[in-house]
Amino acid sequence: MPVVFVIGTAGSGKSLFTSALSDWLKMSKQDVAVVNLDPGVLKLPYSPDVDVRNYVDATDIMEKYGLGPNGAAIMAADLIADECENITRDIEEAHADFVIVDTPGQMELFAFRASGPYIVNELTKEPKALIYLFDAVFSINPFNYVSNMFLSAAVYNRFFQPQLHLLSKTDLLPKKDVSKIVEWSGNPHALENAIEEKLEDTKRIFSYNMMQAIGKLGMQFHLTPVSSKTNEGLIAVNTILERLLMQGEKYTT
Ligand SMILES: Nc1nc2c(ncn2[C@@H]2O[C@H](COP(=O)(O)OP(=O)(O)O)[C@@H](O)[C@H]2O)c(=O)[nH]1
Ligand SMILES: [Mg+2]
To answer: How far is the CA of 17 from the centre of ligand 2 (A)?
Structure first.
């Protein structure tokens, strides 16, 4: 039962993408289970098969411990680690061939505290992968794009799992802008030109040096454009996931 974790900065479209991909896979007769790992979310665009809020709920924590939203979110993120066994059992009981996990809204609560990597390691021994979302509207600025590359490299450095990079919300940008960002992701010279053209002073130097430093890590950021509103790119994502997780076999046995 391969598991894929959807990750990205707050508002990058993790929950809606989880919903779109799971609906699309179900339409293609794949047996999918969807897991919500966000203890603070009030409303989800899908019905989770497994929900961390059954065990840890940030709103309850606020009341019980008299914490504000940030304190409760941090405490909730840390408490999830103790519920790994329960969540794993719930996932197993869902008897799916493929599991999609929607992670907490604030990425740092998952990626940069101890609980996230612990959960990713403990939840299953099956093949797993991370899907990292680059928000297209944010990424059209080369400075933001490079910052996102940096965050994505930092996430990889926390989990060390196969990582697939998607450009989300492409329906919100003109096609030519989507193509431009995709080109940056595959061609460092195109990104370098955009940095030269669009940025000045400190931002230009910072972005250029950051891009060089990340290049030295040898990571691939090739972005696959997707939209959770129009379902653009889901076929491509499915193909990549199959290759990444199942060496080309369907998820279903
Ligand atoms: N137009 C458009 N809006 C999107 C898309 N994906 C997410 N959104 C919107 O972006 C906002 C944040 O999305 P959400 O999935 O909650 O982000 P999360 O915090 O990463 O889980 C919501 O208002 C979504 O409706 C997309 O592909 N296209
Ligand atoms: Mg969300």
So the answer is: 9
pLDDT tens, position by position, 114-147: 999 999 998 877 899 999 999 999 999 999 999 9
Name which residue sits closest to atom 12 of ligand 1, judged by CA.
11
Q: Which atom of ligand 1 is nearest to the CA of 6?
A: 20
Burial letters 161-197, b for 16+ CB under 10 A, else e: bbbbbbbbbbeebeeeebebbbebbeeeebbbebbee
- Domains of the chain listed by start with CATH number: 1-126 (3.40.50.300), 135-159+173-239 (no CATH)
Distance 240 CA to ligand 2 centre (A): 23
pTM over 0.85: yes
| Closest residue CA from atom 13 of ligand 1 | 13
Average confidence (pLDDT) over 65-72: 95
